[in-house]
Amino acid sequence: MTDEAQAKAPAQAKFALQRIYIKDASFESPSAPVIFTKAWKPKIQVDLNTRSAAVADNNFEVILTVTITAKLEDDETAFLVEIHQGGLFVVEGVEGEQMRQLLGIACPNMLFPYLREAVDSLVIKGGFPALALQPVNFEVLYRQAQQQAEQKAAAEPKTH
């Protein structure tokens, strides 16, 4: 292929995981050790979020954040765990909606098993039974967030 033909050819898309890391992690058990003397029937609340940002040329950081609160029936907090699982990804030759889908669906899917293991490890080290997070469909979450953003935009008054 000539140099001119190569210049006109579309760039080949590239997507690669460079590094997985824990950006932040915290574990609190405000009622320990008394909490260990009570019946273990917790109400578990899980909040999951993702965010992404450009770091350098073609490098993107994706952070998958989970906050889990376990409370007993008397509303006493057994534990609170929060983890920010990070990933550094190289993305080239991808733009627009395809880029948003990579960062909002594919990257969190790759990070989730590591986040899940980190949560389980912290909870066990805190003296509590293992906590295995259920699988998450990031495509559904992405579509829901898109729909909510569209509804919000449609509900806002238009200024001329």
UniProtKB/TrEMBL annotation:
Entry annotated with the keyword Protein transport: yes
Compartmental location: Cytoplasm
Record keywords, A-Z: Chaperone, Cytoplasm, Protein transport, Translocation, Transport
Predominant location: cytoplasm
Source taxon at top rank: Bacteria
InterPro entries: SecB, SecB-like_sf
Pfam families per record: SecB
Function per UniProt: One of the proteins required for the normal export of preproteins out of the cell cytoplasm. It is a molecular chaperone that binds to a subset of precursor proteins, maintaining them in a translocation-competent state. It also specifically binds to its receptor SecA.
Self-association and partners: Homotetramer, a dimer of dimers. One homotetramer interacts with 1 SecA dimer.
Protein family (similarity comment): Belongs to the SecB family.
Name the UniProt record assigns to this protein: Protein-export protein SecB
Native species: Zhongshania arctica
Gene designation: secB
